[in-house]
Design brief:
about 230 residues; about 30% helix; two-stranded antiparallel sheet; Rossmann fold; 7-stranded mixed sheet; 8 helices
Length: about 230
């Protein structure tokens, strides 16, 4: 049985470019759909957050304002209720060892931009996982969490690696637009990653060795499936 550590942001707000505070959290589809695909295949999924804080779901991810139909929102709420015990008592990133897991999986929502992207404990885990060839997977804005990983010389651990993320175009079309604190795609390029972006809102997954990334919520299931295939291989 594969052991997968799902790292979820514990941020419930973020500062925007204009200095205002914006409520945020994890994106329901990305956590629920990914968790469902992984566990249905028999994987053991543990949830961890910074400080072991219970994560907050982004209200927009369960609302038509976020492009989520009510029927889908009800299904997502029901699934999240079903894993409420895990979400209520997550592991603390500071106490987790990469060697205890076969893969690290990071779903998005804007929240990872606020905490995971600079979290030293997550950076340590990602560095350890990548160095040992363990699978590292991130989805949508969750790919921003990779920015926490750094080399001793200050370089970006994933510089030169090919990946995808929530694109600048998608941020302008259906995200925070010009008020975003930073564009994830652009920041990754600045740090040396090779970003392969599919059309906006397309189901796009990119794999570079042990690194698997998905572009947006539409890519949730395919990203989880790619992780399972890699672990099986």
């Amino acid at each position: 049985m594969s052991k997968i550590l799902m790292v979820i942001s514990s941020a419930n707000s973020m500062q925007l470019a204009d200095g205002s505070t914006h409520p945020t959290g994890y994106w329901a589809e990305e956590v629920a759909a990914s968790h469902e695909v992984l566990t249905a295949a028999g994987a053991e999924v543990s949830i961890a957050t910074p400080g072991g804080v219970r994560p907050t779901v982004d209200a927009l991810s369960l609302d038509e304002r976020g492009g989520v139909a009510e029927a889908d929102a009800q299904r997502l709420r029901a699934y999240l209720d079903g894993i409420a015990d895990q979400l209520s008592a997550p592991l603390s990133l500071a106490e987790v060892r990469a060697g205890d897991h076969d893969a690290i999986y990071i779903p998005g929502g804007h929240a990872p931009m606020a905490d995971l992207a600079t979290d030293a404990d997550l950076g340590r885990l990602l560095d350890e996982a990548d160095a040992s060839g363990r699978t590292v997977a991130a989805l949508c804005h969750g790919v921003a969490a990779l920015l926490s990983a750094g080399r001793p010389d200050g370089g970006f651990t994933f510089a030169g690696r090919t990946l995808t993320s929530f694109t600048d175009e998608e941020e302008r079309q259906g995200g925070l637009g010009d008020n975003t604190p930073y564009y994830v795609e652009s920041r990754l390029r600045e740090r040396g990653a090779v970003v392969e972006a599919g059309p906006a809102w397309s189901n796009t997954v990119v794999q570079d060795g042990n690194l698997i990334t998905g572009q947006n919520p539409q890519s949730s299931k395919a990203t989880a499936e790619a992780v399972l295939k890699t672990l099986a291989d």
